[in-house]
Automatic annotation (TrEMBL):
The gene is LOC100833300. One of its GO terms (biological process) is mRNA modification. One of its GO terms (cellular component) is cytoplasm. PROSITE patterns: PPR. The lineage of its organism: Eukaryota, Viridiplantae, Streptophyta, Embryophyta, Tracheophyta. PPR repeats lie at residues 177-211, 309-343. Pfam families: E_motif, PPR, PPR_1, PPR_2. It comes from the Eukaryota. InterPro entries: E_motif, PPR_At4g14850-like_plant, PPR_rpt, TPR-like_helical_dom_sf. The keyword Transit peptide applies. This is Pentatricopeptide repeat-containing protein. Keywords: Repeat, Transit peptide. GO terms for molecular function: RNA binding.
Amino acid sequence: MLPAPPFSHGDFVAVLSRCATLAHLKQLHGRSVVTARAASQSTTFQLLRFASLRLSCLPYARRLFDSTPHPNVFLYSAMLSAYAAASPAQAYGHDALALFLRMLRRGRPAPNQFVYPLVLRAACAIGVQLVRSIHSHACKSGFHAYDVIRTSLLDGYSRYGMMLDARKLFDGLTERNVISWTALVSGYARAGKIGDAIVLFDRMPERDVAAWNAMITGCTQNGLFVEAVGICSRMVDEGFQLNGTTVSCVLSACGHLGMLKIGKVVHGYAWRSCVGFGSSVVNGLIDMYGKCGNLKEARWMFDEFSDRSLTTWNSLINCLALHGHSKSAIAVFDEMRDEGIEPDVVTFVGLLNACTHGGFVDEGLTYFKLMCDELRIEPEIEHYGCIVDLLGRAGRFEDAMNVINDMKVQPDEVIWGSLLNACRTHRQLELAEFSVRKLLQLNPNNANYVVMLANLYSEGGSWEEVTKIRKLMKEDIMGKKLPGCSWIEVDRKTHRFYSGDDAHPESEDIYDTLDELAASMEM
DNA sequence: ATAGGGTTAG
C-alpha cells in the first residue's frame, strides 16, 4: 500500500472550515486517521466541536469522544459544551453530569476552571439541588475563587428565583463586569422583581447589547410591553445597534400590544441594518404580523422563508388559531408533519386552540391522543383547557370531569370557566354551580361568575336557587372586579375599550356590528 | 485548543 500523502495541520484546518455536512466531516475524519493526524487529541477536539456546534450531530461527537483512549481535559470540555448546546438541555444534563463524575472518579484528567461553568449549566437544567452540590464542591476544591464560576453559580440560583443566594455571590465577586451585572438583572426580572431589575440596570456601569436585551426581555416577561419598546428606543438613542435577539424580543412586545406601526418600523430597521433575516427575526415578524391581524403578511413571510425552525411553524399555527382560521391551522400542522418536523408542546397549544375555536371535537381529541400516547408529550394546563372545552361542547360532561380529575396539575380558571360555559349551553345546572364554586375559590374577586350563575338559574330557576345566589353574592364579591380592557390601533390612533363601556364616539355602531357578528356566528 | 449574561411560539 502506498503511504498516505502528507496532511499538514494547515490542510486540516482549511478542509474543516469547508465542511458543510456530516458526510464531509466523516471524510476528513477518515483522512485524519489514515495520516495519523487523528492520533493528536487536538485534532479530535476540532472534529468534535465541529460535529456538535456546527453540524448539531451529538451522536457523532460522542463517538469521537469515546474513540479516544484517554481523553484530556479539552476533550471533556468540548463534550460538555456539546451537551450544553444540544436541545432540549434537560435531556442531556444527566449525560454531562455523568462525564463530570467520571473525571472525579478516575482522578484524571483533573477538572479545571473551564469545566465548572459547563457542568453548572447541566446541573441547572436538572435541578437546583445539583447547583447546590456543585457549589459546595467548587468551594471545597478551591474553584469557587474564580469569578467566572461564581457568575455561573449566580446565574444558576437566579434561574430558580433564589435571588438572595444570587445576590450574595454577586456581592462577593472580586470584579464585576457586564456579564455578572446582566446575570443579576435578568435574575430579578425572571423572579418578577422587575422594579429591582430596572434600578440595577440603570446603575450598571457599562452595558452591551446583551445587557439591553436582558432588560427588554425582562420587561416582556413581566407584561411591560410598552416599557420594552421604550427601552429599545432608548438603546437606539444611546447609539447601540439592535441585533437579531433584540429585534425578536421587540417584535414580540409589538405583537402583544397590537402595535403594527412600531412593528413595521422594526421590520424596516431589520431590512436596512445588518441584522439580517435569520430565523429569530423572521419568527418574530410572523408572530408580530399575525398577532396584529395581518395574516397575509405573516403567511407571506412564512412562505418566503426556507430555513424554518419548529418555532417558525408554531408561530404560524398559533396566529392562524388566534384569528379563528382553524382549518388553515390544522392544514399547516399536517404540512409540518409531512415535512418531518416533530411538533412540541407549544405546537399542540396552537393546534388544540384551533380545534376548540372551530368546534372540531373529534379532531381535537384525536390530536390530543396523538400528543399524549404517540409522541409522549406531557400535556400542560393549556392543553387540558382545550380538551375540557371540546368535551364540554360535545356535552360529554362525564369525560370532561374524568379529564379534570386525572390532571397532574391543579385545574385553573380557564378549565372551570370553559366547563361552566359548556354547562350553560347544555343546561347542566348542578355542574355549573360546582364550577362556579371552584372558580370563586380560585378568584374570589371576579363577580362575573356569580352573574353567569344567576343568569343560568333565572332562566329556569326556583326560589330555592335564587336564595343560593343571594348567599353567594353576600360572600362580598360584587363590585371588586377590574374591568377587562382591550385596544386596537387604527390610523395612528389607539382606541381603548373597557368591557361594557360606551365611551367611544362610535360606540353604538360598534355594538351593532358586534351583534351582527354574533348573529352570523350562530348561523 | 476550552468557560460566565441576552431569542422568538402558549
